[in-house]
Amino acid sequence: MNAETMSSKHGLAAGLVPTRADWTIDQGWEHYSAQEHATWKTLFERQSRLLPGRACDEFVQGMRDLPIAADAIPDFRRLNDVLMQRTGWQVVAVPGLVPDEVFFEHLANRRFPSGHFIRKPHELDYLEEPDVFHDVFGHVPMLMNPAIADYIQAYGQGGLRAQKLGVLDKLARVYWYTVEFGLVQQKDGLRIYGAGIASSASETVFALDDASPNRVRFDLPRVMRTRYRIDDFQETYFVINHLDELLSLANIDFAPLYAQVQHQPEYAPGQVLPDDVVLTRGTGMYHDARRGGK
Ligand SMILES: C[C@H](O)[C@H](O)[C@H]1CNc2nc(N)[nH]c(=O)c2N1
Ligand SMILES: N[C@@H](Cc1ccccc1)C(=O)O
Ligand SMILES: [Fe+2]
């Protein structure tokens, strides 16, 4: 989850003062309670039933190769033994949302900040900020894929750059509609690669099976101009044909694009445009029902 405006109960917005300048803390794996491990088990088993046939091949393979299982919240030391070997990434524990520049600095150095806390039993379905289940179950399997590993590091570098240019909101949309909520068209069907979907039981079904959302081919300037939802399912999902497409994004110089989109109007999350390559034009019924109809 990368919702910079979402309120946080454990990190930055909770007024937390960091012990270390990079906001990292020790995971303290030994201190997790039986209840916390049980919450992980519930979430893990629910997603493990839903994701076969819905998660992309790279996600399934990454999960298979990692010490991530139902019985306990993974120990980051064990995850990093595998992850470092495979793509040079490591997971570092943080209390919750951290300041943008801290976040980008970590990503630029192949360190993925993961919430150390896990949601409470009454928050199983919806959570205000990224917890260890979203970050480890949702993001880490994809960090085992070399293309994604390079892409997210480049995103970190790009984030530090975008911040200096004052266009962080535009770049955040690219991350949001790929790393968090991206879909990929495989030969055997549409699949999830976005962590925000992969860690959510309800959005896993909604993103692929529901008639309500739009599904549109990914287009960089189009995505840069499209606002996103931080409080509910996405109204539009963007589709790529292969994860390697993301790598080419990393090699495009965004500066001219930032300059171009700065003076162009933004798009609402549910808008479909004449130039869109539309895979599914959604009914919008889910969000209309929440808006109390149009
Ligand atoms: C746009 C911004 O970089 C983004 O919202 C960041 C902010 N801080 C974060 N902090 C943590 N721990 N995890 C995140 O995903 C993010 N997202
Ligand atoms: N290529 C982008 C950085 C970036 C990398 C990866 C993903 C998205 C953006 C830039 O020039 O700033
Ligand atoms: Fe996330």
Automatic annotation (TrEMBL):
Its EC number is 1.14.16.1. It catalyses: (6R)-L-erythro-5,6,7,8-tetrahydrobiopterin + L-phenylalanine + O2 = (4aS,6R)-4a-hydroxy-L-erythro-5,6,7,8-tetrahydrobiopterin + L-tyrosine. Its cofactor is Fe(2+). Pathway: Amino-acid degradation; L-phenylalanine degradation; acetoacetate and fumarate from L-phenylalanine: step 1/6. CDD domains: pro_PheOH. Belongs to the biopterin-dependent aromatic amino acid hydroxylase family. This is Phenylalanine-4-hydroxylase.
